[in-house]
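Duplicate of #3305? Posting structure anyway:
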């Protein structure tokens, strides 16, 4: 397949490299000066998109997706597919989907989970929204870049699944961290706390697979001085998207709202920027109730 990939940062660069390694013809474009083995670079996003079967975008946010889409859609031919793997707001995904459909271009929103390690190893999970035809075009590429792809529904359904998942993740991480900090103050040994909770009804991915307490449970960023991993500011981005989606759908999400406020405080006024999102534990550890 002839593929363009636009946005070659931490995630997009290794995804492009994996597509090229699998034998596809890959053209790249990024605002920054980037070189990737096996990927030929274009001078603009429109040039990259011209004549391609699939254009993949991996960009920072919805506003940038909308502006890149405005450049690439006129350069693409009817029947081609625009596959956005960025994490963006549901409304931007739906709006770009409508613009694409008006030109006979398939749009698939396909945000990922798995982080930079997943992008490098080709083990991402894709959650996709769009028409069955669009998903069918993108699926073989998902198989190269990832290990699992779920077609969640119409345009925007991939982003909806992503924000709901990450809202649960943010809330449960905070719950796990505040419970550890309470256990400390009650004199409970952290290993015992883990042994009980990880096999009781308080278990969760954040406790069992990504334990925020150093030296307890499987290896996680807490064992590496809370270097990310999944950075607190990326968690904040996803929580804000969940609240934007909740506001636009009139959904009551009080814990999502509280988690957003806590990560906002942690990233913007405390020392959370650049730390893993599990560094909420040392944050709670240092505080009292006041
Ligand atoms: P990044 O900042 O490393 O990469 C974004 C790239 O887009 C940069 O290289 C930037 O130069 C480029 N860019 C910005 N505006 C552009 C434009 N107008 N035209 C062309 N290129 C442009 O970010 P990342 O970590 O690769 O994340 C990309 C997306 O994936 C984000 O939406 C993020 O939320 C999502 N995501 C990231 C992770 C992660 O662990 N990093 C995990 C899951 C999802």
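Output from current build:
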């Amino acid at each position: 397949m002839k593929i363009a990939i636009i946005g070659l940062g931490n995630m997009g660069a290794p995804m492009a490299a994996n597509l090229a390694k699998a034998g596809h013809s890959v053209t790249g474009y990024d605002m920054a000066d980037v070189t990737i083995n096996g990927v030929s670079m274009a001078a603009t996003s429109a040039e990259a998109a011209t004549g391609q079967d699939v254009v993949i975008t991996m960009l920072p946010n919805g506003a940038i997706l909308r502006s890149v889409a405005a450049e690439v859609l006129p350069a693409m031919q009817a029947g081609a597919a625009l596959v956005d793997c960025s994490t963006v707001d549901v409304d931007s995904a739906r709006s770009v989907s409508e613009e694409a459909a008006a030109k006979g271009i398939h749009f698939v929103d396909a945000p990922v989970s798995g982080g930079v390690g997943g992008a490098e190893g080709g083990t991402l999970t894709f959650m996709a929204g769009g028409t069955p035809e669009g998903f069918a075009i993108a699926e073989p590429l998902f198989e190269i870049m990832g290990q699992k792809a779920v077609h969640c529904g119409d345009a925007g359904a991939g982003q909806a699944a992503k924000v709901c998942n990450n809202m649960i993740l943010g809330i449960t991480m905070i719950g796990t961290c505040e419970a550890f900090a309470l256990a400390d103050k009650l004199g409970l040994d952290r290993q015992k706390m883990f042994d009980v909770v990880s096999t009781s009804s308080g278990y969760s991915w954040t406790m069992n697979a990504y334990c925020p307490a150093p030296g307890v449970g499987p290896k996680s960023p807490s064992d590496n001085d809370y270097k990310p991993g999944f950075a607190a500011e990326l968690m904040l981005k996803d929580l804000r998207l969940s609240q934007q989606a909740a506001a636009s759908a009139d959904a009551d999400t009080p814990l999502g709202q509280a988690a957003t406020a806590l990560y906002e405080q942690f990233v913007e006024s405390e020392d959370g920027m650049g730390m893993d999102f599990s560094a909420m534990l040392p944050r709670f550890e240092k505080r009292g109730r006041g």
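Confirmed duplicate; merging threads. The two ends are 59 Å apart (CA to CA). The chain has a mean pLDDT of 97.
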